[in-house]
Design brief:
heterotrimer; A mainly alpha (514); B mainly alpha (97); C mainly alpha (624); B: 97 residues; mainly alpha; C: 624 residues; two-stranded antiparallel ribbon
Chain lengths: 514, 97, 624
């Protein structure tokens, strides 16, 4: 019940704000209302976390209702440690995004209430998707998130927004179509085996022939790889990020794109473990390409928003590599990375969003020496940037290192090449920082003013989280670990043993394999 | 019997050729009516030949539809003529381009 | 009490971060808070060290486990610190020199409107450096390692309104990151091999692993050490780093941070003991850097860059000593400490000189400053005597020990260090003569004056330490003190008695001094001669042995070309494929709409044609 309430709250909020945004007092304050609803959602998420028994792990807070009986589709919700991490990410980010969004200057200010309502509906649909435990329901929600995002990009973006919105939509629909085919295939397999059911627990029991499993896996994987985005399916992201408003970009990259990696980890590995094992070498190779390719392209970008989009391609490469390395360390790291990347990229998008709004240009060369007149802005940019380049002491380092260390035990070349990404990361972030913030103040950038308190309120919690989780990641890892142990034992590859064990060794996690 | 059918065929052919070669919308329209009535004739002949009423029922349907079509079609032609001062079907290609 | 060693780190860290967040209100007193934090760490460090000296020799390593940093799957890292003989020495060096430099900076940065931020960064540096040396896990060490990198980045680029400073800061960080790849891979290898990255556990388990593992770890760690310690081939950032304020150069780029690589090698003694190949690599790196740094030091007219070349060279000595294995570890640390004293002293002295000459760094614009700045002259002179190895000073003891150990290892390595000693004496004499002796070559509006007391007192303290630091070796104290950490230093018998060796070294240094005095005593041009008028050796040295050009040609430009190519490929190739598909789809529609002429009669003709085809087909089917 808690989970349904959790997903419903922002959706109700969206309806209320859209309907009453221009109505009578006290409902004509959409900015305040939207933040109120999102904070209420955060509170419910914290209550859900309180109800969740961390020590026990597994799927909890479950509720199942009949939905479409002939397909075996259910309105089934439930989360494990991975899901609840994603719920936390979404519910923590959305209020901050809404605070920042309230300060954005839209082309048509009178449509602010629609804008905020759409952001809230993205949150609601994402929360529902993260907590769905029925494949059909997940598919419907996965596709439904496209609708508000399409309007967010297409109605509120930059000059080239309709191109970007259509590209985003078609790309994702193609992936969705392949997934739909796999969903239909799952029905056939499930119906042949007995009573048709889309429940995750039932799908995990299915016996499939090797080829069927591989085909269905590829169908799911196509949708997730486009969403995530994995090289070479990434080209929609830079265009969309360059045209969307900062808040939209945050919801898209930090929250919705996580549905891709979440889907791989929770759905693909659970339903198609053998096929995932079969495809792992290719996917790891693509992920390594993503890491290096995304980083190199980020270095070559002139537009800050495209730059951040490409850094995300690189970071998603790390996450996907961690997932498909199938070690508990790398998969825990990948899950933690999803959370950390969400926060760190959100901070980057929001602070560059402010810069772009003040300067009226997103091109790096139009800035220069801004640090002198906007020191707080430059401080936030530096912290967000350093977290993106995985500086130890900041949250993304932990997750990136876990992914690399876990992958190293499986494949030394993949980990070694991926490690080169940290040099490239330093380059793309520091070159951007150098050209925008340092050096003599450029004449054109004189009008840039420092952050106002609304922007500080939105950014400060992110910085606190980035630093805090850099030193104390363990509370979150405690939530993630049991779920990852289950996934790892389901895939059944098992962790490689250390070659020369030492006396003072880490307590060994329960052995994978079945 | 064959005579009726031959007449029907001839009428239909005249109508078809008329539709293809004439430009004036009114004439084209009349040619279409001619084709419809040629089919009606065929229906009725076959009805007679087979000794049941199916063909005649069909002919009635055709007549009703044709009447409705005349109403709509003539209205369109008249309004086109009013606005464009021409009843040539070749001039009416606004949707193209 | 050792359980509280985290306070050493926490106090400057909180002070540093607090000053950043506090904002403008703290401008008035921020530097005092920061200095107090540093003083606290120093005093607490002294207390702990005294406690350590008072305890039994077997009870001198204290590990405090704060909390579990990361625990997932097999990956387990504790946030734990170890205060032992080695890290204790470093704590004293870092907080001691650090405190002096804090005090000095109060005067040096007095007129900078961002002084509070400067002190906050200094505090963060102290905290990170202490994390580095106290860490008892390689990953925690890595945290400090990158932390000092960050502080170094912030401080090199402190005057970021200057393009050159911003570029130098970025370069330092990126080059260090290359080294960090080695560090990161080394830690991953430890994790895969031993299931832990605890320093004690890894070094203890090395004998059980194959030699190739030890070699791989040794080489990867060496790559990290090369980055941080500006050793060839990752040396290029250090000279540019002189863009930072001079106290930063003294603290970070001379006394402490750049020696972290040496610390890392000594701390990983277990790994290097097990691999002859890795040790040889360390020796080669050290020797090459030693000579390259000295070469550069001979040719630079910028006083800070000349000192930076010297720093490279001296760290080369330490590296080389560390590569000698148990015979050299203690001497590497010994030289590291004495070098920390005299090089910090000389950098601060250079800062004092610049302070008196309107921030001019060109030595050719100095000359005869000894009368104008007597205290600076005397303290700098003490540092000078120490670095050239004047008998009785700190450098005399520490460098001699390394040269002796090098001869004990192999004649050629020993010869290299001996040549280095001669060159060191030469370039330091050149620097000394150009700055303090000879005739005045001051620019017109320059009126050299002595610096305020807040700056000269630290100079005096460091000058004294430069002379007295050699006392650490009396009674063979330092090798015995460090023996539990780095192993017993077996004594190599040289072919000749030790006093003869000392005599030879001193004679070589004296030759260097003589050449320096002869060449630069008088008739020095007040402007730097053009590149075309100097010998090829000078030109190469001035261009830092073309390190930047090599980096550019081998790494930077290819990367940039690759980047541009990929940007093109992504737009035209990957995205081109997708948009191309959309375009082809559009073309097909264009083609298909051609028959749609809009003419009623052509549609009718098609209609009839179609009907005809259907009828004929039906007929054909029925008749067949």
């Amino acid at each position: 019940m808690t989970l349904m309430l959790l997903a419903a709250t922002p959706l109700i909020g969206a309806v209320v704000i859209a309907a009453l945004g221009s109505g009578p007092a006290p409902f004509n304050r959409p900015k305040m209302l939207s933040v109120l609803f999102s904070v209420a959602t955060l509170v419910i998420a914290l209550i859900a976390l309180g109800q969740y028994d961390i020590a026990e792990g597994g799927y909890q807070l479950t509720s199942t209702h009949e939905w479409i009986d002939v397909f075996g589709a259910h309105l089934a919700f439930g989360v494990n440690g991975i899901g609840i991490t994603m719920l936390l990410l979404t519910t923590i980010l959305t209020p901050l995004v809404l605070v920042a969004a309230g300060g954005e200057r839209l082309a048509q200010p009178e449509r602010m209430s629609t804008y905020l309502a759409l952001i809230l509906s993205v949150e609601g649909l994402a929360l529902a998707a993260f907590s769905a435990s029925d494949a059909f329901l997940f598919y419907v929600l996965f596709e439904a998130t496209l609708i508000p995002l399409y309007f967010l990009i297409g109605s509120f973006g930059g000059p080239n927004r309709s191109y970007a919105a259509v590209k985003f939509l078609i790309y994702n629909l193609v992936g969705g179509l392949l997934m739909l085919a796999a969903i239909v295939g799952l029905y056939v397999v499930s119906a042949r085996a007995g009573e048709a059911s889309y429940l995750l627990t039932d799908l995990q029991q299915l016996d499939m022939s090797t080829n069927t499993e591989r085909l269905l896996f590829l169908g799911f994987m196509a949708a997730f790889a486009i969403k995530a985005p994995l090289w070479p399916f990434h080209t929609w992201l830079p265009d969309a990020a360059a045209e969307a408003t900062p808040s939209t970009s945050v919801m898209m990259v930090s929250v919705l794109d996580k549905l891709g990696t979440f889907g791989m980890l929770v759905w693909c590995l659970a339903i198609f473990p053998e096929a995932a094992d079969w495809a792992a070498p290719v996917i790891i190779a693509l992920a390594v390409v993503s890491i290096i390719y995304g980083a190199l392209l980020a270095i070559g970008q002139e537009d800050m928003r495209r730059l951040i989009a490409f850094t995300s391609v690189s970071h998603f490469g790390f996450i996907i590599m961690g997932i498909f390395a199938f070690t508990t360390t790398s998969m825990s790291g990948a899950t933690l990375y999803m959370f950390n990347h969400g926060i760190s990229t959100a901070a980057l998008f929001l602070v560059t969003g402010v810069m772009i709004a003040r300067r009226g240009s997103a091109l790096i060369k139009d800035f220069g020496g801004v640090q002198k007149i906007a020191p707080i802005m430059s401080g936030f940019l530096l912290v967000a940037g350093l977290s993106s380049l995985s500086l130890p002491g900041l949250a993304p380092f932990i997750s990136e290192f876990m992914v690399l260390a876990g992958t190293y035990t499986r494949s030394i070349p993949a980990a070694a090449i991926a490690t080169l990404g940290i040099v490239l990361a330093a380059m793309y972030i520091l070159i951007m920082y150098q050209r925008t913030m340092t050096g003599p103040l450029s004449d054109d950038a004189r009008g840039v003013t420092d952050l106002v308190s609304r922007e500080k309120i939105a950014l400060a919690p992110m910085v606190v989280l980035i630093v805090g989780l850099g030193f104390f990641p363990q509370p979150l890892l405690n939530v993630i670990n049991p779920a990852i142990d289950t996934v790892a034992s389901h895939v059944g590859v098992g962790d490689p043993e250390p070659k020369t064990p030492t006396q003072i060794q880490a307590p060994v996690a329960e052995e994978g394999g079945h | 019997m064959n005579e009726y059918l031959s007449l029907s065929l001839i009428l239909f052919t005249i109508g078809a050729v008329g539709v293809l070669v004439r430009r004036n919308a009114i004439v084209v329209f009349m040619c279409i009516e001619l084709m419809l009535n040629a089919t009606n004739l065929a229906f009725v002949s076959f009805s007679r030949q087979h000794g049941n009423l199916d063909g005649q029922v069909a002919a009635f349907f055709v007549m009703v539809v044709a009447a409705a079509e005349v109403v709509v079609g003539l209205a369109i032609i008249v309004s086109i003529y009013r606005t464009r001062r021409s009843a040539s079907v070749d001039d009416a290609s606004l949707l193209k381009s | 009490m050792f359980d509280l060693q985290w306070l050493l780190i926490a106090v400057p860290l909180i002070s540093g971060l607090g000053l950043l967040v506090w904002g403008k209100e703290a401008d008035a007193f921020g530097h005092l808070i920061a200095t107090a934090a540093s003083v606290f760490s120093f005093i607490f460090g002294v207390v702990l060290f005294a406690d350590l000296m008072g305890s039994e020799a077997t009870d001198r390593s204290h590990t405090a486990n704060l909390f579990t940093w990361i625990d997932a799957g097999r990956f387990h890292v504790d946030m734990s610190f170890t205060f032992d003989q080695l890290s204790g020495l470093f704590v004293l060096l870092i907080t001691g020199v650090g405190t002096l430099i804090h005090i000095y900076s109060i005067g040096y940065m007095e007129h900078d409107e961002r002084r509070r931020r400067f002190f906050s960064f200094l505090n963060i540096f102290i905290a990170a450096m202490l994390t580095l040396v106290l860490a008892s896990d390689y990953l925690v060490l890595f945290l400090g390692w990158e932390g000092v990198g960050l502080a170094s980045y912030l401080l090199i680029g402190f005057w970021q309104h200057k393009d050159s400073a911003a570029a130098a800061a970025k370069k330092a960080f990126v080059v260090n990151r290359v080294g960090d790849v080695g560090m990161a891979l080394a830690i991953m290898t430890m994790f895969a091999q031993f299931g832990t990255s605890s320093i004690a556990a890894v070094n203890g388990a090395i004998p059980g692993a194959s030699a190739s593992v030890a070699t791989a770890l040794g080489l990867l760690l060496l790559l990290g050490a090369c980055g941080k310690s500006a050793q060839v081939p990752l040396q290029s950032w250090l000279l540019d780093a002189m863009e930072g304020p001079t106290p930063v150069s003294a603290l970070i780029h001379a006394a402490t941070m750049v020696t972290a690589g040496v610390y890392l090698v000594v701390r990983s003694a277990g790994i290097y003991d097990a691999s002859e190949a890795a040790r040889t690599a360390v020796i080669i790196v050290g020797l090459v850097t030693l000579l390259a740094g000295a070469w550069i030091g001979c040719t630079k007219d910028d006083i800070k860059k000349a000192l930076a070349g010297s720093t490279m060279s001296q760290i080369g000595y330490m590296m080389l000593a560390a590569g000698l294995g148990p015979a050299g570890y203690a001497f590497a640390i010994f030289h590291l400490i004495t070098h920390g004293f005299f090089k910090a002293n000389m950098f601060l002295g250079a800062g004092s000189v610049m302070h008196g000459t309107n921030d001019d760094v060109n030595m050719r614009h100095y000359g005869a400053l000894r009368a104008a700045m007597p205290i600076t002259f005397v303290t700098f002179g003490l540092g000078y005597l120490a670095i050239i190895g004047f008998p009785g000073t700190a450098g005399f003891f520490s460098k001699d020990k390394i040269i002796e150990a090098a001869f004990g290892h192999s004649f050629w390595v020993g010869l290299g260090t001996l040549v280095g000693a001669g060159v060191t004496a030469f370039y330091m004499t050149r620097l000394m003569t150009l700055t303090f002796f000879g005739e005045k070559r001051w620019l017109d509006d320059v009126h050299p004056h002595e610096s305020p007391k807040v700056m000269t007192y630290p100079l005096i303290a460091l000058g004294a330490l430069s002379v007295l630091g050699g006392a650490l070796i009396f009674g063979n104290w330092i090798p015995e003190w460090l023996e539990p950490v780095v192993g017993h230093a077996e004594h190599h018998e040289l072919g000749i008695p030790v006093w003869a060796m000392t005599l030879i070294i001193t004679a070589v240094a004296a030759c260097g001094v003589a050449v320096g005095v002869l060449l630069y005593r008088r008739d020095v041009a007040a402007e730097t001669p053009a590149d075309s008028s100097v010998s090829i050796f000078t030109r190469a040295g001035r261009n830092e042995l073309y390190g930047n050009q090599i980096n550019d040609a081998v790494v930077v430009r290819p990367t940039m070309h690759l980047t541009r190519f990929l940007v093109w490929l992504d737009a035209k190739g990957v995205d081109g494929f997708v948009t191309g598909m959309a375009d082809r789809l559009g073309d097909t529609s264009q083609f298909l709409r051609k028959p749609q002429t809009g003419h009623v009669r052509s549609y009718a003709a098609t209609l009839f044609g179609g009907a005809l085809v259907v009828v004929l087909a039906l007929l054909a089917v029925t008749l067949a």
